[in-house]
Amino acid sequence: MDAINILRGLGSVARTKELVGRGVSRRQVDRHLVRGEMLRLRTGVIALPDAPADFIAAVLSNGRVTCLSGAKFYDLWSLHSPTCLHLSCKHGHGTGFTNHRELTVPVHPGAPLVGLVDVLVHALRCLPPLEAAVMVECALRRGDTVRSFLLDRLPGDRNGPARAALDLVTCTAESPVEVVARILFLGTGFHVEAQARLEGVGRVDFLLEGFLVVEVDGAAYHSDRRALRRDLHRNNKTIAGGYLVLRYSYEDIMFYPDDVLREVRGVLSGRRVR
C-alpha cells in the first residue's frame, strides 16, 4: 500500500482516519513522518510537504475549497486570483475565509473540494457578474455541465443576480478576454456577432454592426514568421472584403476599456478618432 500516493490522491492533505480507512496503517504514517515525507499539521491531520495551501486551510477548517478558490483546481478560466479564501463549511464559525455553506451536488471524490457545479453556483452568487461569467463560460464550453442544471440550483428572488450573471454566458468565447470584450461591446448597445464567419476570411472574434471586425489578440499571438504572414494576409482579405478592422491586446481590453470603446464608437459613427 503506497501511502504517499494515497495521500496525494486525497489532495496531499487529509485526516489520518481517511488514510487508515483506505488501508494505510498508522505505522506507515509514522514511518513517513520520521523521514519527513509527511508532515503532521496537528493531531489527526497529515500532509505532504508540497500540499496546496488552500487544501491545507480547508482541511484545518473542516471545509472544502470552492468558488474562485476552486477555479484553478478545476482548470477554469478566471480573471483574478482570489483576495480571500473561499470555502464551504457546514459550521458557521471560523474567520479568514468566505463561507459558502449550501451544497447541491456531491463533493469531489478525493480532494477537499466541492463539486464543480457548486464551484460555479457559488461563483455566480458571490463574485462580480463578469468574473463569474468567465468561469461559467469555460465550464459550459467544455461540456462540464449545462445551463439548465445551473438554473435549477438558482431558484427564487434571492438568486436573481446570479441568474443575471449566468445570462452573460453565451459559450462563444475562446479565452477569458473574449468574454470580457463581448460583454463590454454588448453593454454599449452595439449589434455584436461573436465568432462570426466571413466569406473568404473565416472566423473573426467579433463583427460589430455588420461591418466592423474587432480582433482580440493574446500576448504571444504570432508564434513564428509564417504565422505573422498568414495573419497579415487574413487581415488584408478582411479589408478587401469591405470590412473595417480594429485589433486590441489583452491589456487594451482589461485595463483600457474606455479607450477601446471610444475608438469603436468613433469608427461606427463615421467620426475621425483623435
From TrEMBL:
Pfam families recorded: DUF559
Entry-linked InterPro entries: DUF559 (IPR007569), Restrct_endonuc-II-like (IPR011335)
Domain DUF559 stretches: 204-267
Name under which the protein is recorded: DUF559 domain-containing protein
